[in-house]
Write a structure and sequence with these properties.
alpha+beta; 530 residues; seven-stranded antiparallel sheet; globular
Length: 530
């Protein structure tokens, strides 16, 4: 039980439904849908659409979406890959001919076709009970009539003034006289409201056909991107079979590549060979083992993970006990290893993750992102669509499986998670924000719960570390003695400017028929139930 003399938020317990998101307005939107008779799928899309308005640095309709879903508390877990692809004319040779060897974060070539709206519409058509017109109403209202700016949103917005100022459309629509909105001020996004109305009226066609796509493509072509309207028409989300590994007698489910969920499973496969419970959860030993497993798993990720439609991704090898054992044997408890490979690609922390479980035990694990904060910081002028920069996740190396290519999807960092009990029923719907950190966050959260017996809120609150970019980022809440102990083992300890991401989770107690929801105070996390 939580120490009642230590300030902190409590777990939300409920019987009829629960939602946990990284913004109160988003959680409220989900609860409104549930209480109006909608199911978890309806509520998740409504909540995400709100976050695309009220947290525009973290997500948007110009981004991508991944989902895990179990219906009715039992049966197969459904995976949906809603990631977009590179335009049909974008090749490695096209970039190399311009001496581009790495796709920049604000390059027009970083902009992949958005997959989110297509995924939302497919989910609602196949598994929802309400139409897109109904579930977008709260988001439309916030965009049209305005919403109040929270402290965390204000901070995240202010950190991107320079990037937004580099694009005239972004500066006009997402800054006010060159400044970001202050805490408590009201912000409106009229252009985005208009686009959401078109999607509400016409569904998928409201985004991928007509005025909206014409506006986006015309703008992209004006900044030397090679997108066509046909590229947008070709966007189709894909149902996929989740991949899984066993941990603590349970099945941990992830979306397969091109997502990096396989990295979380590899980490867990490494970690289950250690008796983590022998160490304090915020000890030198536990955090050292986790850091070493991170470095090893990410080195494998960076070598292999790509779009399986255009590359050979050795999933069975990456999930094998043999690989986990081989990597585990490289971990010494007495010193940090020589760096197996520095994490490649840009480092970012922005995404939104949310989860909803309804009274019928439909459980949805849902994640949506623009990749970097405000994505590419490129905005279509009439539609208000901020465009993601997910293409920066490609490499420009024709010998690498993740090399950019026409209609290819890049290595993707956003990963929803789900845990099934031994009976095959969903026990935990969870996810972690924070870009490349997410596999580490999955492993950290799950070991907190299943090795250390924490409740979902304690597991979310527990201090984090992340070995990235050649250093070990250690959150401020880690005790000084532990920091020093990690440094003594050879880890280059660093205190990050901002915490790594956030998390939301809902645990289902099938025996008692109750739900336990937690959300992350590192963001504006909010969990509610009824």
């Amino acid at each position: 039980m939580r120490d009642l003399q230590q300030p902190g938020r409590s777990v939300v317990h409920a019987t009829n439904g629960a939602a946990a998101t990284s913004h109160p307005f988003s959680t409220l939107a989900a609860m409104e849908i549930l209480q109006a008779g909608g199911n978890a799928i309806d509520a998740a899309v409504a909540a995400c659409a709100v976050q695309c308005v009220v947290e525009p640095m973290s997500t948007g309709i110009g981004g991508d979406c991944f989902v895990l879903l179990q219906k009715g508390g039992q049966g197969p877990v459904i995976g949906l890959n809603g990631s977009g692809h590179a335009p049909g004319k974008l090749t490695a040779d096209h970039l190399l001919d311009q001496n581009i060897t790495q796709i920049g974060l604000e390059s027009p070539h970083s902009i992949t076709v958005p997959g989110a709206v297509d995924a939302w519409c497919r989910l609602l058509d196949d598994h929802g009970t309400m139409g897109i017109d109904r579930v977008l109403q709260r988001a439309i209202s916030y965009a049209e009539n305005g919403f109040a700016i929270t402290p965390r949103v204000s901070v995240d917005w202010s950190r991107n003034i320079d990037r937004l100022s580099g694009d005239a459309n972004s500066a006009a629509q997402y800054l006010n006289n060159g400044q970001s909105p202050a805490v408590g001020s009201v912000w409106k996004s009229p252009e985005l409201a208009g686009t959401l109305k078109k999607i509400a009226e016409k569904g998928r066609a409201g985004f991928y056909e007509g005025d909206v796509v014409s506006d986006i493509v015309s703008y992209l072509n004006s900044i030397d991107a090679v997108h066509t309207i046909d590229d947008f028409a070709a966007q189709k989300c894909e149902y996929v079979d989740p991949i899984s590994s066993e941990y603590a007698g349970r099945s941990v489910m992830e979306i397969p590549p091109n997502g990096q969920g396989i990295t979380a499973l590899l980490m867990l496969n490494i970690l289950k060979g250690f008796d983590l419970n022998a160490y304090d959860p915020v000890s030198v030993e536990r955090l050292h083992i986790e850091a070493e497993a991170t470095r090893l798993a990410f080195a494998e990720r960076d070598k292999h993970v790509a779009d399986p439609r255009q590359a050979d991704v050795p999933v069975d090898y990456l999930l094998s006990d043999e690989l986990a054992s081989e990597l585990r044997d490289r971990i010494s408890l007495s010193k940090a290893m020589a760096d197996p490979a520095k994490t490649t690609g840009p480092i970012y922390r922005d995404t939104v993750y949310l989860t909803v479980v309804d009274r019928d035990l439909n459980a949805v694990s849902f994640i949506n992102s623009l990749y970097f904060s405000f994505g590419s910081c490129k905005t279509a002028p009439k539609s208000g669509v901020l465009l993601q920069n997910r293409g920066a996740g490609f490499v420009v190396d024709k010998d690498h499986p993740n090399c950019v290519a026409p209609h290819k999807r890049p290595l993707h960092t956003i990963i929803p998670g789900m845990v099934l009990g031994g009976d095959g029923r969903c026990e935990l719907s969870f996810g972690v924000m924070g870009g490349g950190y997410q596999p580490v966050g999955h492993a950290h959260l799950l070991t907190n719960i299943f090795d250390y017996g924490m409740d979902v809120q304690e597991a979310i609150d527990c201090p984090r570390t992340f070995h990235v970019g050649g250093k070990l980022d250690v959150e401020r809440s880690v005790p000084d003695a532990v920091r020093q102990g990690l440094a003594d083992l050879g880890h280059p300890v660093n205190e990050p400017e901002m915490p790594w991401g956030g998390a939301q989770a809902i645990r289902i107690d099938h025996a008692n028929g109750t739900l336990a929801a937690g959300s992350d105070p590192r963001k504006d996390g909010c969990a509610m139930g009824y």
